[in-house]
Fold this sequence. Notes:
The protein is of the alpha+beta class and about 180 residues long. The protein has a domain at about 50-140: SH3 type barrels (Roll). Helix content is about 25%, strand content about 25%. It contains four helices and eight strands, in the order H-E-E-E-E-E-E-E-E-H-H-H. The strands form two sheets. A six-stranded antiparallel beta sheet has the order 6-5-4-1-7-8. Strands 2-3 form a two-stranded antiparallel sheet. The longest helix is centred in the first third of the chain and has 29 residues, at about 15-40. The chain is extended, with a radius of gyration of 26 Å. The N and C termini lie far apart (about 80 Å). Residues about 35-45 have low confidence and may be disordered.
Amino acid sequence: MTSAIMAPVAGNTSDTIESTTERMYMRKRLQLLLAVAVASCIPLAAAQTAITTTSVNVRAGPEKSFPTATWLLSGTSVTVVGCVASWRWCDVIAGRDRGWVYTRFLSYPFNGGAVNIINGGPNLGLPQVEFSLGPYWDEHYQNQHWFGRKSYWQKRWDRRPPPSEWRDRSSASTLAPVNSRS
């Protein structure tokens, strides 16, 4: 059995185009592989997980007067997207649900223990976010029965008093751990 060795013929533009195309595809594949490798090394900002300390309502905004979007059982893991400046409410994701949970009911791992976010506040390193009702509701709640009253809720939100600032609730400079009930 003989095998033919094909050598490029000098000046054959077909071979030049084919090898250039192959190099372009190879370069693109390597760039994609490199991007995936680099991205896997960078921790995601939104990948901070907290646990609900009791069964909680997930609200459509950072205030208890907002409609309930869903509720979560005690011990549910949630991804914390961020918390408002007062550290009283955090925007969370649980499965396909998204909304706001009062931080007294969220436990976050810290220094080998767990701390309620309302107690740890800015010391926990969670991102701080602003709430803008219109875009937030447009993105997450268009199928909710109360979405049609968005302008009512917007007016109510606009008339709210300014939020109080976060204050350190721990008795000392260290953060108090969450009490666990068995």
